[in-house]
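Hey L., structure's done. Input below.
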Amino acid sequence: MHLPVLVVSALALMVNTAIASPVPAPTPAIPKRQEPACWTSCSKEAFECPKPFDSKHRGDCWTCCLN
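Output:
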């Protein structure tokens, strides 16, 4: 049966990929001067997003408020 050979090959490929490309380091915190504009009205402590907030910054606002 060829199934065990496929499983072993898949595992070997996964191991080789893991060795070849190590886990990237965590992204460093964004410097203050590069904060999205909506962060100025986002309360990180209270986890509240400004409403309404500019739709083009929506992702940045949720990232700010949820992290």
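Residues 32-67 form one domain. The chain has two helices and no strands.

-- N.
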